[in-house]
TrEMBL record:
<dbReference type="GO" id="GO:0071949">
    <property type="term" value="F:FAD binding"/>
</dbReference>
<dbReference type="GO" id="GO:0009882">
    <property type="term" value="F:blue light photoreceptor activity"/>
</dbReference>
<protein>
    <submittedName>
        <fullName>BLUF domain-containing protein</fullName>
    </submittedName>
</protein>
<feature type="domain" description="BLUF">
    <location>
        <begin position="3"/>
        <end position="94"/>
    </location>
</feature>
<dbReference type="InterPro" id="IPR036046">
    <property type="entry name" value="Acylphosphatase-like_dom_sf"/>
</dbReference>
<dbReference type="InterPro" id="IPR007024">
    <property type="entry name" value="BLUF_domain"/>
</dbReference>
<dbReference type="Pfam" id="PF04940">
    <property type="entry name" value="BLUF"/>
</dbReference>
Amino acid sequence: MYLVRLIYVSQLSEQFRPGDVEHILQSARSKNSALHVTGALFFNPAFFLQCLEGSREAVNQTYQQILKDPRHNHILQLQYQEIARRDFSEWSMGYVPDSARLAPVIKAYSRSDMLDPYTMSGESCYQLLLALKGLMA
Ligand SMILES: Cc1cc2nc3c(=O)[nH]c(=O)nc-3n(C[C@H](O)[C@H](O)[C@H](O)COP(=O)(O)O)c2cc1C
């Protein structure tokens, strides 16, 4: 079995409603557990940044579902690679909501105070998610 990591960024669409994040997390956590997919989701008023890890088949299947979801758009894959081990093995989908306490971490990885993964390398986005791991729910 090949273990892979996929990271993408997307923008919240007009169809996104307050409260959707909770629904997304609920559905993601139960479906990911069944497929042994783990990962992390960062969310702010502008975009989602998500890392999925698991078997190649499971990650691709999950990502293809996510691509069809009308609650976001402009989905840009930032990284896809085979990995030796998982970084988020404890989370069926770890969640990091944006908050002021993230500011120092964000500043360390992005060029400005405003985080914009579309302008960052896949590696920087991956490092940012790793740095946010300690703040994950
Ligand atoms: C930003 C975002 C992240 C998502 N992450 C996941 C995920 O990790 N796993 C998953 O199964 N669904 C995820 N979803 C939900 C899927 O797009 C889709 O709605 C869901 O798989 C359909 O579930 P259902 O068949 O139970 O309705 C995500 C959706 C969005 C918008």
